[in-house]
C-alpha cells in the first residue's frame, strides 16, 4: 500500500501522483501534422478481487491502492458490512489478485454463489444487492455551503493529476468543508469512488460531514455508491441521469451537477444549500482546467 | 424496433432522436443564482438480456433499440457467432427483458454457466472470452483519409443529439468515407457500440470499409469491441489507455484519439493514414460543440 502524501496541493491526505512510473506509459504516435510525438497514456490492468475463498470480480484499474479498491468495492456492493471484521487484505502484484479475509465468513459469499447460479452474471445481481442496501436509508441533512463548493472546484481543478498528465481517466475527491482530503483517480468508472470507500473504512473516517466531488456523470450507480458510503452530498462537473436524481431525492442526498465556473444546478437537497457565495465573484474556468463532462 | 430515420443531418440511416419522449425527462432544480430551473436529464433503465433460456446480463440503457443492443452485446461478447442463426428477438417493454433465440442452442450458454459457477461473476469471464475472440485476428489494412476524419467530426459535432440536449451520455457513430451512417447514444458506456454491432448484424453490413467514431475513451474494451466487429479504424475525441493502444497495434486497428479541431494523435496504423487534408484549413471547434473528453 502506498503511503499517504501530505503538504502541497492544498493539504491533501492523498493526492494524485501523476509522475508515478507504474501509472502511465509513454508511447510514440503521430500528430495531425504527421510529426512523431510522444504522449503519456494511462495504464489499465486487471485486478481480481476475492472475498475469503470466493472470487468476486475482475476490475480494470490503473493499479494504485489495490487494497482500498478491494475493500471499497466489497463495501459498496454490500458484501462487507459494518459488522464484518477484516483480518487481512493480501495483494499479489504478480498474480494481479487481492484477497480480503474476514473473521467470520459472511453470508454474502453464499448469497452471491446462489444468485449467480440462477442469474448467470453477477452484474445484475450486484446491482440488485446495492438497491437492497438502500432500503429505508436516509442521509443526514448536513448543510452544504456554496462557498465551499466553489473553493473545492478551484483547488481540485488545479491539482496536478493523471487527468491533466494523460487524460482518459476519472477522478473522485473526498472533501470536508472547503478542503479536499483524498483525491483518487482511475480508468475504471467506479474504481475511484471505491478506493475512497476503502480508505474511509481503513481509517474509520466519518461520512456525515463530507462532500464527494466527482468528474464523472451522476448516474444511479454513482448516487447509490455515495449513499451506501453515508456521504450526504455529491457534486460533479458532469450531468445527471433521471434515475440518479430520483434515488438522490429518495435517500436525501444533496446532488449538484454541471458545476463550471460560477454555474451549477442542484437537483436534490436545495433546502440544505447555504448560499453564502456571490456567484458573480467566481472566475470562469481556465481552458486547461476544463474537465470532461463540462458543458457550456 | 424503431424505424430508421433518413434525410436531414447529413444523410444518416439512423440519427439521434433528442426529442423522443422516452429518452429524457424534465426535472426541476435550482441554478447557481438560486432560481428554479427545468433541465432535461437522460433516462436510464435496466434491460435484462437472455440468450435462449439463459439470463446473460442486466445492462443500464436509455432504452432505445433494445433489439440491436441485445444482438450486438451477444455478438461482441463472442456468445453469438457468425454461424449462429437468430430465429427471433423478443423485447418485452414491461418486463424490461429481451430474449434472443437461435436455431441451435449455442455452446456459449454452457460455457458461461460453467465459468460463472467457478468465477462467481461474469465480468471477468466475459472479458476473458472477448480476449479469446481476438486470437490471430488481423483487420484489413483499409486506408483512412484525414479529410474524411475532419469531415466526420464536423458533421457529427453539429448533429442534434441527446448529448447536446441533456449531456451525460456517450455517442458512437458508424461511418463510411466522409459519411456518418448510424449514430447511437447511450448512458451505458458500451451500449452505443453494441447497438451499432446489432444494427450491422441485422442489416448484414460489411465492416471492412467502415470507421467507428466514439465520444468515449479508447480503452482496451472499446478497442476489442471494434476489432470483434471487424471495423479497421477507430477515432475519438478522448484519450487512450496503454492496453488499448497495445491491442490496437496487435490486431492492426487504426487508432486515432484526441481529435479536436485540426489536432489529433494516431497511435496505431499510421501507415494507413492518407494525409490528404491541410490541417491549418480546419476551423477550431465552437465552444458549444466541445465534447466531453476533449483536451486542450
Largest interface: A-B, 77 and 77 residues
Number of helices of chain A: 9
Instruction: Output the radius of gyration of chain A.
Output: 19 Å
* Shape, principal axes of CA atoms of chain A: globular
Separation of the first and last Cα atoms of chain A: 40 Å
At CATH's second level, what is the architecture of the largest domain in chain A? 3-Layer(aba) Sandwich
| SS elements, strand count of chain A | 14
Main beta sheet of chain A: 6 strands, mixed
For this structure, what is the CATH class of the largest domain in chain A? Alpha Beta
- Mean pLDDT figure of chain A: 86
Secondary-structure element series of chain A: HEEEEHEEHHEHHEEHEHEHEEE
Structural class of chain A: alpha/beta
Uncertain regions spanning at least 5 consecutive residues of chain A: 1-8, 114-126, 292-296
What count of domains describes the coordinates of chain A?
Answer: 2
CATH topology of the largest domain in chain A: Cytidine Deaminase, domain 2
Quaternary structure type: homodimer
Helix content of chain A: 25-40%
Strand content of chain A: 25-35%
Amino acid at each position: 500500500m502506498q503511503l499517504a502524501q501530505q503538504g502541497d496541493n492544498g493539504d491533501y491526505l492523498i493526492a494524485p501522483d501523476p509522475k508515478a512510473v507504474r501509472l502511465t506509459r509513454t508511447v510514440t504516435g503521430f500528430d495531425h501534422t504527421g510529426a512523431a510525438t510522444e504522449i503519456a497514456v494511462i495504464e489499465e490492468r486487471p485486478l481480481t478481487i476475492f472475498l475469503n475463498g470466493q472470487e468476486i470480480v475482475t476490475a480494470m484499474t490503473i493499479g494504485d491502492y489495490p487494497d482500498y479498491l478491494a475493500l471499497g468495492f466489497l463495501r459498496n456492493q454490500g458484501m462487507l458490512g459494518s459488522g464484518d471484521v477484516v483480518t487481512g487484505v493480501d495483494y499479489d502484484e504478480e498474480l494481479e489478485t487481492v484477497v480480503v479475509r474476514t473473521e467470520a465468513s459472511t453470508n454474502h459469499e453464499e448469497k452471491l454463489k446462489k444468485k449467480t447460479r440462477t442469474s448467470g452474471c453477477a452484474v445484475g445481481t450486484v446491482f440488485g444487492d446495492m438497491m437492497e442496501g438502500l432500503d429505508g436509508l436516509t442521509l443526514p441533512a448536513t448543510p452544504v455551503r456554496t462557498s465551499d463548493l466553489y473553493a473545492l472546484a478551484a483547488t481540485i481543478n488545479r491539482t496536478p493529476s493523471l487527468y491533466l498528465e494523460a487524460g482518459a481517466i476519472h477522478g473522485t475527491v473526498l472533501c470536508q468543508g472547503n478542503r479536499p482530503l483524498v483525491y483518487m483517480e482511475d480508468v475504471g468508472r467506479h474504481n475511484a469512488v471505491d478506493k475512497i470507500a476503502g480508505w474511509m473504512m481503513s481509517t474509520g473516517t466519518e461520512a456525515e460531514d463530507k462532500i464527494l466531488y466527482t468528474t464523472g456523470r451522476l448516474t444511479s450507480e454513482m448516487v447509490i455508491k455515495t449513499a451506501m458510503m453515508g456521504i450526504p452530498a455529491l457534486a460533479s462537473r458532469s450531468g445527471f441521469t433521471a434515475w440518479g436524481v430520483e434515488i438522490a431525492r429518495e435517500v436525501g442526498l444533496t446532488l449538484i451537477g454541471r458545476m463550471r465556473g460560477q454555474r451549477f444546478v442542484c437537483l436534490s437537497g436545495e433546502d440544505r444549500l447555504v448560499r453564502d457565495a456571490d456567484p458573480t465573484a467566481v472566475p470562469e474556468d481556465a481552458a486547461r482546467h476544463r474537465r470532461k463532462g463540462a458543458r457550456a
